[in-house]
């Protein structure tokens, strides 16, 4: 039954997409005022079908209907809540359903916006989104169909499936459940949906860009109307990346948060390019510059999200993130090539639309800073792109194998990051057009001294490792410049109106949310940079073999092995050790790193003890009757990374939310 | 406000900078953890994309033990890496050496940066020349 319902829902959405494209094109071609009402039904079909498909998939999982191939392959009777919910997108086919659902929701939101402002630019964007939706629902209907009927059962999966919902079903009595690595931490439930909102959201600016090019609407309209979805997508992408790193840290058990894994890179690249776009869009809106560059960035950002989906789902690159190899890979690759070739061709054909940008007065100006920022961010993205794809290409064309990993990426990303931080510190306080050196100096000399003082403090109490001190200085500089600027700007209002600085600060945030939300994100990025420098240079690591009752010293802690424990749950067996952690004779806590056996697969579960200065991180390697082998790490200031990362994302939401407040305020005044 | 920065803030900034930079320079270089430096450059042959330093697979730990042993015996980094790559087929060096096959990889980002910088500087308003109309002003 679920197969039938799911298939019906998928085809409803597919029909809705096709109808939306057809109706939209007709509207654009007609000479009269576009009447948006005729698009309502196809959009409803599209959204209804997408929601329906996801609901049916969840229902099939909760009903334990193992005749549905996806359920048979990815669910088990013992999968606990909330991992059973997340099972719906934990494997390849389901992840495409989630992708399509998020896209449908963005189409719905875009349709609402276009209804308020019905014009050809908006309808063209809806048509573009409809084409993308047609592709993704097409995937769900064909090569990534989770609603196939299992016609031949294997022991705990489906041996053969039929795409026809009326086929005679024969499913297993129970399935193997989702990938054990995905059942180990709550973060795994939220991390992928957040990323998907980020990835899919970048389709909206792409759609507006394509529409502006195809219809021939010059100017900043497409930027203005895609600003909110871009910010939303960027904020979610940021949170998704941060939580992904957090998950890796809490689950993978090597004490790190990022490994320059190809799939991690696949999410970093669109983030870098989208960040560049958020900044360069401002230059276009404010100064009319970088018109064509904005199109390039938006096309690149969207193409990179497609590249990311391709890398994850094609098994082209070995990665902990990879889904199984499937027919979807080549299809995605073809779509990617069509998108890149098609959009750049359109861009080239419309070059007249974007030519004759005004020139830059001086590099030392706000737009100059933003230009440098764009250059650094895109070169950064380029480094990640070449590093990720180079091994693939080299192997395909020359039979040589070459690995590109952390040493390579670090060599480029470290200097680029420092340059970005410096730009982040100086750029935001430079006025537009041309900055007098004396004004810039006046705005930065205090923060510079503050940053150097923090650096001096670090040198005295903590470390004299150059990279760490440099990160502390540049990071504090960025934070201090932003704080000083807010204080000073609020001071103007205080003097003029006699209100408190706090009231004035809120007024500032409401009056230019994009700028001040951006400053919040800058603070977040600065904190992350400091945290990365500490983690990369001051983490310590050791291992020990311990007998019950034995105590070892590590990084100033005394770790005592109290004994092993065993816990059996329906879905997993947990073997762990109890470790008492003491420092200077005082017992701080008890940690219980463990080994989980889920469906016959062994997954480590590290234990993390967070303190102000550092995390203590324990992983247990093996447990026998007489002894346990333990891996021990310290991760300095690890919490700063999560705080900074979350703050970076929050900055994006501030930029979004403050604008709504202002609108409400304006409405209240009218 | 005077056009020249006042002397005192500038001086104290320089002093602080000198202190921090000086402290970093005269600091003892951190004891190079050569085993780690080698370990994070080589993937383990059986695990997916993980380096032997971080991997918990038995073979990765064997390889790390070999690294420690060779360092104690006074081998150079390159010798140790060569031995690991030949002794454990399937392991990959993550830090590709500069060479013909990796020319694009190594030089690409630098070329992109220089090209971008040139393009950005090229976008600056040229000093106005006679008889050439300057680009129109855009309202701020």
Key descriptive features of the protein:
heterodimer; A: 670 residues; Four Helix Bundle (Hemerythrin (Met), subunit A); six-stranded antiparallel β-sheet; 64% helix; B: 140 residues; Helicase, Ruva Protein, domain 3; disordered C terminus
Structure notes:
- The complex is a heterodimer of chains A (670) and B (140).
- Chain A is an alpha+beta fold and 670 residues long.
- Chain A has 4 domains: 1-178, Four Helix Bundle (Hemerythrin (Met), subunit A) (Up-down Bundle), CATH 1.20.120; 180-359, Up-down Bundle (Four Helix Bundle (Hemerythrin (Met), subunit A)); 420-538 and 649-669, no CATH class; 540-639, Sandwich (Tick-borne Encephalitis virus Glycoprotein, domain 1).
- Helices cover 64% and strands 13% of the residues of chain A.
- In chain A, strands 4, 5, 6, 7, 8 and 9 form a 6-stranded antiparallel β-sheet that branches.
- In chain A, a hairpin with a 4-residue loop joins strand 11 and strand 12 (628-636).
- Chain A is flat and about 80 Å long.
- Residues 666-670 of chain A have low confidence and may be disordered.
- With 140 residues, chain B is mainly alpha-helical.
- Chain B has a domain at 30-115: Cytochrome C biogenesis protein (Helicase, Ruva Protein, domain 3, Orthogonal Bundle), CATH 1.10.8.640.
- Chain B has helices spanning 7-26, 34-39, 58-72, 77-87, 103-122.
- The radius of gyration of chain B is 26 Å and the shape is flat.
- At the A-B interface, helix 10, helix 14, helix 15, helix 16 and helix 17 of A face helix 1 and helix 5 of B.
Give the topology.
The complex is a heterodimer of chains A (about 675) and B (about 140).
Chain A: H1 2-29, H2 40-62, H3 69-74, H4 83-90, H5 92-116, H6 120-141, E1 149-153, E2 158-162, H7 187-201, H8 203-215, H9 221-251, H10 262-287, H11 291-314, H12 328-349, H13 351-354, H14 366-398, H15 406-426, H16 437-461, H17 466-497, H18 501-511, H19 513-538, E3 540-546, E4 551-554, E5 557-568, E6 572-583, E7 586-591, E8 594-598, E9 601-605, E10 607-610, E11 614-623, E12 628-636, H20 638-669
Antiparallel strand pairs in A: 1-2, 3-12, 4-5, 5-6, 6-7, 6-8, 8-9, 10-11, 11-12
Helix pairs in contact in A: 1-2, 1-6, 2-4, 2-5, 4-5, 4-7, 5-6, 5-7, 6-8, 7-9, 8-9, 8-11, 9-10, 9-20, 10-11, 10-14, 11-12, 14-15, 15-17, 16-17, 17-18, 17-19, 18-19, 19-20
Chain B: H1 7-26, H2 34-39, H3 58-72, H4 77-87, H5 103-122
């Amino acid at each position: 039954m679920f197969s039938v319902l799911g298939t019906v829902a998928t085809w409803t959405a597919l029909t809705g997409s096709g109808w939306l494209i057809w109706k939209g094109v007709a509207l654009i071609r007609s000479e009269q005022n576009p009447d948006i009402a005729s698009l309502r039904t196809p959009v409803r079909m599209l959204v209804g079908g997408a929601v329906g498909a996801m609901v049916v998939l969840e229902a099939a999982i909760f009903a334990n209907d193992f005749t549905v191939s996806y359920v048979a392959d990815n669910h088990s009777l013992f999968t606990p809540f909330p991992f059973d919910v997340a099972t719906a997108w934990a494997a390849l086919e389901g992840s495409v359903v989630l992708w399509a659902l998020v896209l449908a929701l963005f189409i719905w939101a875009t349709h609402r916006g276009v209804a308020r402002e019905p014009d050809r630019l908006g309808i063209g964007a809806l048509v573009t989104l409809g084409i993308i939706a047609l592709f993704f629902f097409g995937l769900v209907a064909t090569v990534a169909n989770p609603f196939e009927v299992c016609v031949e059962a294997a022991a705990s999966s489906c041996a053969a499936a039929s795409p026809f919902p009326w086929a005679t079903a024969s499913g297993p009595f129970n399935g193997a459940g989702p990938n054990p690595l995905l059942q180990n931490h709550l973060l795994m439930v939220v991390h992928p949906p957040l990323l998907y909102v980020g990835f899919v959201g970048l389709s909206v600016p792409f759609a507006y860009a394509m529409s502006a090019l195809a219809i021939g609407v010059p100017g900043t309209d497409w930027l203005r109307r895609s600003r909110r979805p871009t910010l939303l997508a960027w904020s979610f992408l940021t949170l998704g990346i941060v939580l992904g790193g957090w998950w890796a840290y809490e689950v993978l058990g090597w004490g790190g948060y990022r490994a320059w894994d190809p799939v991690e890179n696949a999410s970093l690249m669109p983030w870098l390019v989208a960040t560049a776009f958020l900044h360069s869009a401002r230059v276009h809106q404010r100064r009319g510059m970088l018109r064509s560059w904005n199109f390039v960035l938006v096309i690149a950002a969207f193409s990179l999200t497609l590249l990311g989906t391709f890398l994850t789902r094609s098994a082209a690159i070995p990665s902990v993130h990879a889904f199984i190899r499937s027919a979807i890979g080549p299809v995605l690759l073809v779509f990617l090539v069509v998108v890149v070739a098609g959009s750049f061709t359109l861009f080239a054909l419309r070059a007249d639309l974007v030519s004759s940008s005004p020139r830059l007065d001086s590099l030392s100006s706000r737009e100059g800073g933003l230009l440098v920022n764009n250059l650094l961010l895109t070169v950064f993205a380029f480094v990640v792109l070449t590093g990720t794809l180079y091994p693939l290409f080299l192997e395909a064309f020359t039979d040589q194998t070459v690995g590109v990993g952390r040493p390579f990426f670090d060599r480029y990303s470290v200097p680029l990051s420092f340059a970005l931080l410096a730009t982040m510190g100086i750029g935001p306080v430079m006025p537009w057009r041309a900055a007098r050196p004396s004004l810039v100096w006046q705005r930065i000399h205090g923060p510079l001294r503050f940053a150097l003082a923090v650096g001096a403090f670090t040198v005295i109490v903590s470390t004299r490792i150059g990279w760490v001190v440099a990160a502390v200085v540049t990071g504090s500089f960025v934070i201090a410049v932003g704080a000083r600027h807010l204080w000073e700007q609020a001071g103007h209002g205080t003097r003029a109106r006699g209100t408190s600085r706090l009231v004035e600060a809120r007024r500032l945030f409401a009056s230019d949310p994009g700028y001040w939300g951006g400053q919040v994100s800058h603070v977040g990025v600065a904190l992350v940079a400091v945290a990365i420098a500490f983690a990369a240079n001051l983490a310590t690591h050791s291992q020990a073999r311990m007998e019950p009752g034995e105590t070892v010293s590590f990084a100033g802690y005394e770790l005592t092995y109290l004994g092993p424990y065993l816990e059996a749950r329906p879905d997993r067996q947990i073997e762990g050790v109890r470790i008492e952690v003491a420092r200077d004779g005082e017992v701080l806590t008890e940690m219980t790193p463990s080994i989980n056996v889920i469906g016959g697969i062994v997954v480590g579960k590290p234990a993390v003890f967070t303190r102000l200065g550092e995390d203590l991180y324990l992983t247990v390697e093996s447990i026998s009757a007489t002894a346990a082998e333990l891996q021990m790490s310290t991760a300095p200031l690890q919490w700063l990374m999560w705080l900074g990362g979350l703050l970076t994302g929050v900055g994006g939401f501030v930029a979004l939310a403050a604008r709504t407040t202002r609108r409400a305020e304006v409405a209240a005044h009218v | 406000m005077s056009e020249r920065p006042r002397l005192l803030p500038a001086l104290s900034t320089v002093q602080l900078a000198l202190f921090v930079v000086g402290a970093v320079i005269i600091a003892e270089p951190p004891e190079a953890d050569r085993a780690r430096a080698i370990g994070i450059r080589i993937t383990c042959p059986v695990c997916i994309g993980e380096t032997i330093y971080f991997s918990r697979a038995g073979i990765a730990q064997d390889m790390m033990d070999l690294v420690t042993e060779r360092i104690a015996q006074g081998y150079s980094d390159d010798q140790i890496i060569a031995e690991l790559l030949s002794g454990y087929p399937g392991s990959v060096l993550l830090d590709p050496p500069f060479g013909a096959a990796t020319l694009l990889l190594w030089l690409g980002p630098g070329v992109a940066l220089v090209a971008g910088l040139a393009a950005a500087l090229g976008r600056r308003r040229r000093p106005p020349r006679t008889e050439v109309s300057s680009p129109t002003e855009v309202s701020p």
